[in-house]
Amino acid sequence: MSHYDLLLKKLDAFIRKYYANQLLRGGLIFAACLLIYLLLITVGEYYFYFSIQVKWTLLVFLFSVGLLSLIFWIIIPLLKMQQLGKVISKEQAALIVGSFFPEVKDKLLNVLQLREQAGEEAVSSELIAASIDQKAEKISVLPFGAAIDLSKNRRYLPLLLLPVVAAAAIFIIAPKIFTEGGYRLSQPSVFFAKPAPFSFEVDPRQLRVVQGQPFTLTASVKGDKL
């Protein structure tokens, strides 16, 4: 394998890492936004008893925007990692690498352009080929992958941890918010009336009477509002 071929191989690896970085960032943002949205609509449904129209609007928004976000943030970068679809060119990758390594600058791009010009000639000069390979030898030793720092995506972790911690706290303190709110959201075509803020209580011992005799029913009312 020539030094130029090694250079192209490292550029291909850089392009895959470029889209892996997009996939990691998009995955974190997608998961965080999805959890925050589900948490908000579940808590909202538990307390406010959304109408059928509101529930359908929330669910349609969830599936439509969620599907678009899934395609844009996850599926497309995943496909491009496999060289499927339109990806950045080696020249564009060379510019990114050159901006990270000052000692390379435009040399990497110049090698690619020189090789392209040599290929367009009727007879490729051995001198030009040797010059390309010599320049590629000096550049190919650089770790191109260092130009992309995957660890920078850690800044998106708090965005994901916040809804996770909030959901865990709600599940421990008030699990009914998820069970009841989630159940009502899972049936968007069913109307659930909000319970009255009071209730009637009758002593069951009063319910045994002599047939045909007068009966007085005594009941009490309890609740936040009477």
Shape: rod-shaped
Helix content: 55-70%
% residues in beta strands? under 5%
Write down how many β-strands occur, each being a DSSP E stretch of 2 or more residues: 2
Write structural notes for this entry.
The chain has 226 residues and is mainly alpha-helical. The protein is built from seven helices and two strands, in the order αααααααββ. The chain has helices at 3-48, 52-81, 90-100, 107-120, 126-139, 157-173, 176-185; strands at residues 198-202, 219-223. A two-stranded antiparallel ribbon has the order 1-2. Helix 1 (3-48) crosses helix 5 and helix 1 packs across helix 7.
Features:
226 residues; mainly alpha; two-stranded antiparallel sheet; 7 helices; 2 strands; 63% helix
Short structural summary:
Helix content is 63%, strand content 4%. It has 226 residues and is mainly alpha-helical. Helix 1 runs parallel beside helix 6 (157-173) and helix 4 packs antiparallel against helix 5.
Task: Give the arrangement of secondary structure elements.
Elements: H1 3-48, H2 52-81, H3 90-100, H4 107-120, H5 126-139, H6 157-173, H7 176-185, E1 198-202, E2 219-223
Antiparallel strand pairs: 1-2
Helix pairs in contact: 1-2, 1-5, 1-6, 1-7, 3-4, 4-5
